[in-house]
From TrEMBL, chains A, B:
The gene is rnj1. Residues 18-218 form the Metallo-beta-lactamase domain. This is Ribonuclease J 1. One of its GO terms (molecular function) is metal ion binding. Its EC number is 3.1.-.-. It comes from Antarctobacter heliothermus. Gene3D superfamilies: 3.10.20.580, Metallo-hydrolase/oxidoreductase, Ribonuclease Z/Hydroxyacylglutathione hydrolase-like. InterPro entries: Metallo-B-lactamas, RibonucZ/Hydroxyglut_hydro, RMMBL, RNase_J_2, RNase_J_b_CASP, RNase_J_C. Keywords: Exonuclease, Hydrolase, Metal-binding, Nuclease, RNA-binding, Zinc. The keyword Hydrolase applies. It comes from the Bacteria.
Length: 555, 555
């Protein structure tokens, strides 16, 4: 009979930034009791996922092992850690544990699916713990760019594991708990089997800066501004929002929050007690009653999101407020790779309005929420684990993080999504490859990344679409001519006649030539018509469109 | 009778980076004789231009004024300055002037349209000049990231104008002519009416670095590498390619050029004499015969282009060559904003192969080809023009560049695409707004950005597509049921039945209910069927697809 074992299995986040979802198990091989850490989303883009609303890890493996799951733990309230709790609840339906602020946000996600708030159980910080099957789990405070971010201290019969979640080392984070090396030393003292560690900033060579370093630059900027000031940052970065608001307040400006997420996050922070002393805010309807130099707007959309307040303000009015020549717009943020085009578009639209733009490249207006390379080394030295397993990062980050560990003579394991690692023995090893992937929320339907649905959309976007319609009578003779409807294709091509006419002519000739064998066989007929439509298009316009053939038989 | 005037009219490049196309005119208002400077392209993206091959300025205005155009001058051989000479030649057909290297590249573009090479006339550098109607134009050497980049000295009866083209201030550019402040002083001495000046790097606060600063870091990296080395940069950056090749050569490595553009650019450089002493190269078929540590590949695709050598090497074999664990891949380049996702994808694929990646963030492996803020000031001080008109930049760059000029007590004019500026008097002023836009090369057809074709493709990509087919008999009664073909849509929705069945059922019911007025009217019938298809889809899958309705009448 085989021994119990302790396993680690990333389903999302290990090989990408975003979509975090990790599994730990303890028990007999194949019958381990399981806990899940985080259930996050990642965001679609036009290149690979047009029309998709949101993306999260394929949880087929969890669904198949539903009876073995004890609980889901959420480390913090960023979308890439909590965003999919609502979308997956019907499938999993396990108890969810989180600290107060995170629980507040998670309950909001569940409410969208009419799931009651009690599905989420609020846990206090370490040393409080939760028992979940063979696991005892505690929330160990750590600083990050959102309140109450926590590492998980996961105790198992095979030893203690620390799962860092996302973190930075900030002893003065302004809101939420500071990095407390003494506490971490104490928790690590009994010995730590594995440190599962955030990797996103492993290529940043210098130690990270504290949140407090942002205030002075912002304060100077805002106090010197002559007209309206607008600042954008992630709404969930409550400390930053507070810094911005206080700078405005001290400069004699009334603060107005714009954007649903901005108001939601501040509300959640106040409700759960993580935020106090936030300056009084005014509603958008009050802005027009004040001189422009007495107003500061704090707005969503630092990543250029089309529907967020920043984008709307750059295009025109939002909530009745319009920016004007001489106003100042501060990006207290860093553009996430991939969002450059959208952010730059907003900057240029603001420039056209005569608005002055300030961003992180022009001063100390932003700090990262993640641990840089030296910070990772600091944590590894304090925790002193038997093995470091990098998580939350692209392949290049995980690989570099393993190298960093090895440079410091620690064991490191590169485990990407789907690799099940057995942590029980002295040498961790990959014991199984689980099929993983991505699930797309598309409108109200969850579809698989490999279903071909999005692939077809991409093809239509690249190639255009032709619908060919043919009617055959009872004797399989064409009734009238075939005809075509085009979408996303030029009207005219090489021969300077309408493309639709050239296509119909060629299809008609094909039908005239086609023998009984083709005319009586739907597949052959469709295949032939499709081939002609594509070839004629290639000749005329230099590209082969997608073709839908509709054959109607009166028989 | 009105006076002659000197006009400046940007058609592309003023309000964007890329797609440069500028017009100068001299003569009676509305009858000025014209010259065109540059005819470049910009690149499509999936967000806004799916399926498009290349983009250039809408030249409708030039076509309408074809008889007034004397010539087209090309400042240098980058795609965003020369890329559209072939695509527009049939429309414009004016003489093209360029220096030898640029002319070589331009002739290649024309050859794709079977236009003879003599359409391009080779001009030597300043003090040689070309007469073009009222203009006398000379090519004033200036350093940039491609050989023989030149500013244009444009003499007119209303005074001298200098159009910088793209440039940097490099006194040691390695290949091509150095920045020569003495020469520029001399040319500026008679007085310069207007300086039309590159703006892309106006936000870069420090003086630019010389091309020579790249060599030492590359040489150290390559000499210490243990296995195969691959380096990518823009093929047209001949100096950089030479630096990379020499570093490889000195480290005892054979050089192999991969990618069509890489070979094309080196050939053109050798043919026109701008490049000498390039190390001997080997063909891809010889690579396998050599030890990996004796090979260095110089490859295209630094911006992550899907079909270029870098991307293909990251995915698998290219020309029989495959990268392996421990190889080194150097990005001697900067990722252009908007290309991050593609470049990062390649980096991660290389990381999966165990290839070590080095980029500009890790050392001095790249320098920009454009003048930074202090460099712009240097040129403005030397030229000392009556007015600075920023070109080649997004709106935010042009605006900042005007501010920079004004800070130094110079007049600056913010003129974006379509603004015609009269430079004749002492105060330049906008005298006309010309309609401008973008032309898409789509397969072999040129379409307008506003034609709605690409918009329809984007809609299909976001929403999916439904084809509804209905046949009506001679009495306008439905013959059989309506049916649907779906593309890019989920198979099942809310009711867990196939979406196509639910749609056909609802459409059938609609047809059954529809009165004579609807059934006999194609527009009403189509409108009704479309509405039902969209509403049913919304209920089932939470999104409204694009719908094509095909009504066939047997009458």
């Amino acid at each position: 009979m085989s021994e119990n074992r302790l396993i680690y299995l990333p389903l999302g986040g290990a090989g990408e930034i975003g979509m975090n979802c990790y599994v730990y198990g303890y028990g007999k091989p194949g019958a381990e009791r399981l806990i899940v850490v985080d259930m996050g989303v990642t965001f679609p883009d036009m290149d690979t996922t047009p029309g998709v609303d949101i993306i999260f890890a394929d949880i087929t493996w969890l669904k198949e092992n539903r009876n073995r799951i004890e609980a889901l733990f959420i480390t913090h309230a960023h979308e890439d850690h909590v965003g999919a709790v609502g979308h997956t609840f019907e499938t999993l339906g396990v108890p969810i544990y989180a600290r107060a602020f995170t629980a507040n946000i998670a309950r909001g996600k569940l409410a969208e699916y009419n799931v009651e708030g009690k599905a989420v159980r609020t846990v206090s910080k370490w040393p409080e713990t939760v028992n979940a099957g063979p696991f005892t789990v505690g929330f160990l405070p750590i600083s990050h760019s959102i309140p109450e971010s926590s590492a998980l201290v996961i105790d198992t019969p095979a030893g203690r594991v620390i799962h860092t979640g996302d973190f930075k080392l900030d002893t003065t984070p302004l809101v939420g708990e500071a990095w407390d090396p003494k506490l971490w030393e104490e928790v690590s003292k009994p010995g730590v089997k594995a440190l599962i560690c955030d990797s996103t900033n492993v290529f940043s060579p210098h130690a990270g800066r504290s949140e407090t370093t942002v205030g002075p630059a912002v304060e100077k900027l805002v106090s010197e501004a002559k007209n309206m000031v607008v600042a954008t940052t992630f709404a969930s970065n409550v400390a930053r929002v507070k810094t911005l608001a206080e700078a405005g307040d001290r400069a004699g400006r009334s603060i107005c929050l714009l954007g649903r997420a901005m108001r939601r996050m501040i509300e959640a922070s106040v409700e759960t007690g993580v935020l106090t002393g936030f300056p009084k805010v005014i509603g958008p309807e009050d802005v027009s009653h004040l001189p422009r130099e007495n107003v500061m707007l704090l707005v969503t959309g630092s990543q250029g999101e089309r529907r967020a307040a920043s984008a709307q303000l750059s295009r025109g009015k939002y909530n009745g407020i319009e920016l004007k020549e001489g106003d100042l717009f501060l990006f207290s943020s860093k553009t996430i790779p991939g969002n450059e085009r959208e952010v730059i578009r907003i900057m240029n639209q603001l420039s056209e309005k005569g608005v002055d733009i300030v961003d992180d490249s022009m001063g100390d207006y932003h700090v990262s929420g993640h641990a840089n390379r030296p910070d990772l080394e600091t944590v590894q030295n304090i925790v002193n684990p038997q093995v470091v397993i990098p998580m939350h990062g692209e392949h290049r980050h995980l690989r570099e993080h393993v190298r960093l560990a090895e440079k410091n003579r620690r064991a490191g394991v590169l485990a990407v999504n789907g690799m099940m690692v057995d942590l029980s023995g002295n040498e961790p090893r990959v014991v199984e490859y689980v099929e993983t992937g991505r699930t797309y929320l598309d409108g109200s339907v969850q579809i698989g990344a490999m279903d071909g649905i999005v692939r077809d959309r991409i093809r239509m976007a690249l190639n255009g679409h032709v619908v060919v319609t043919v009617i055959l009578d009872e004797q399989d003779e064409p009734l009238g001519e075939p005809w075509c409807d085009l979408m996303g294709l030029p009207e005219k091509g090489r021969s300077n006649a309408p493309l639709v006419d050239v296509l119909e002519e060629d299809l008609s000739q094909f039908l005239g030539r086609a023998g009984d064998k083709v005319r009586t066989d739907d597949d052959k007929l469709e295949e032939g018509l499709r081939r002609v439509a594509r070839q004629t298009s290639l000749n005329e316009i230099g590209k082969k469109p997608e073709v839908t053939v509709v054959v109607s038989r009166l028989s």
